[in-house]
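The freezer alarm interrupted the setup, so I double-checked each line after restarting. Inputs confirmed:
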Amino acid sequence: MKISDFEKLKNEGTEKLPSEERRRFLRFGLAVTGVFLGGSVLSLTSARNASGVQEKKSAAGKFPYKPHYTMVLRQNRCIDCERCMEACVRTNHVPSYGYRTTIMEQNRAAGDDRDPLFMPVLCNHCNRPPCVRVCPTTATYKDKETGIVMMDYKRCIGCKTCMAACPYNARYFNEETRAVDKCNFCFDTRLSKGKKLTACAEACPADVRIFGELTDENSEAYQLIHKPDRKVWVLRPETGAMPNVFYIND
Amino acid sequence: MKIGNTKARKFFNLLLFSLVLLVFCSQASGQDEEDGGSIIFTKPVKAVIFEHSIHTEQGLECDSCHDGMFEMEAGVAEQNDDFTMASLYEGNYCGGCHDGDTAFASNTRCTACHIGVKGYERLTGGTKDSGGGH
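Predicted 3D structure, all chains:
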């Protein structure tokens, strides 16, 4: 399903979700809070009491991470001012032909350009990252500590297989470094230097990008996605990548 | 086109005249001449659209906005430090009407007013491709 089709879907609630599917998600410590028509868009949140299950070795490796970074995007507040993109470019020296994060636009109905939807997109730092699986040189890897999907530029041979594998189109080839580049939640430029927020989250004037920890109950991000009855969704859950970027409204 | 007889030439002249008239009329009656047209704010954020036509079609008089709330000059409000959402929520500027009473509230439907960088570039003919939309 195309990302642009998502908003047209109605939330059906969890009842119609096959129990097998439900169990599969619960295994990864995620509570299913809603499902869209046809079961293509699942709404997931990390389950409070699932840590016992998570400690078992799973296909997702170590989960949850500590800290387990997440970004919650309050989609309907995004006004496409693109300050996040500017801040990202400045902080991470992103060339004009590429991006680590972008804003997509979609109309609510064909030919109707009133009240468009703006959707911020970035690397989803998946628990089962397809890009990591296909990289022949382990240049891209899931950081053991934080779960951030990182790049070791020196190991990258520029084969671009990861770019094709990424369900979110969140990677680009940097002509200068001759390596693939992507969002790393500003790990090298900010987090490792003691800053608490990514550049994009700090720059957002509309409180759209809430960066935080999935396992920290005091984190705003945690609280936003654990609010009862709140619809939470992820992009392209059908790929089984288990993203750590969540979308909500309001 | 070769114009042979006078009849045809007369017809051609008439056609030309009505064409000119048509162009002239549509320009004179264009919204841009009577009211302030469409105004795009880019400060502090890119970009917010205000369309006079939508508002005058609601039966609003010029005075309901141009009697202290807004100047009849684009770019004036943008010079003020308080041209922000916080100020709108307090009932200033657009918030004077967009309060959930007279018109939809300023803390709803963000993208009714905010057209973003993409909307701005579409309306001003910018060519920047911000990517992403595959």
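Quick read of the result. The interface with chain A takes residues 44-46, 109-112, 114-119, 130-134 of chain B (CB under 8 Å).
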